[in-house]
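Researcher: Here's the sequence for the chain we discussed earlier.
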Amino acid sequence: VLKKGSPVNGTLHAEWLNGAVARNLKYDIQTTFTKSVAEFKGYKGYTFDNKSVMFQKEEGSIVEGRTDEKGDAPLKFSFNGGSSAPCMLNATITTKVYEPSGQFSTDVESRQYSPYSSYVGISTPQKGKDFLETDKAHTLRFAVVSPEGKPLANKSVNVRMYKVDWYWWWNSDDSYIADFASDTYYKPLFEKSLTTDSSGNAAFDFTCKKGDWGAYYIYAHNNESGHTATKMAYFDWDGNPERYGKSDAATKLSFKPDKSEYKVGDIIKISIPSVKGAKALVSLENGSRVISA
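Model: Thanks. This is the structure I predict for it:
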């Protein structure tokens, strides 16, 4: 794992295809950082990703220069990208050596890159589409690990929890908190300061009262490294009559499909009760995120 700020020392050597020394040629090394999946062995069910940050890619030049009379160039640099990364990144390192004509030879290497010295993760008891039952204590778990996935003790974690209104009305294909389509706002419930134990873990119990059912946004910040993880949790109870009856929520409609079963590639026709001139806002969801809207 490449780490932010860690020094890299090495030597670049260039030769022509016939084996002759490629002396006095210009070279440069560039990096492209793209989002990776932060998964650590032994932490299944934990989220180490910051969903509130949209990270596409980040490009930059590391070093440039010329080869010497032996076709060599000493390299000494460090990686410093990814300051706003949501989690671990993929680093694509592209080295180019330029011929006098302007053409160049390229070497490309991909490595995992850690922009943080440690990572905080969140785990809730929620499984798939199931909600967490109201009026019942649920343990929210947190962990801090090194870039290699080793647990880190005595690490400070700041936890905040928010009640989120209009949770199902966002306009993002990956549930990014920043891209809700309607007038979403956060109601901070509380803030806690935790310290990881000898196993790198911390936890506390949370009970959502029946009258406060709905979606909650959990925010955990690793104070030492600056890494943040976020996760949504949904609290409800069976037979909740308010689920579709709240004045500020969407009304439940009775959909009528044209067939009982469909195959991949089929066109689905659905009838929705409506009045003349009515419009429908339709989103396709898989239980945890909006796929299309």
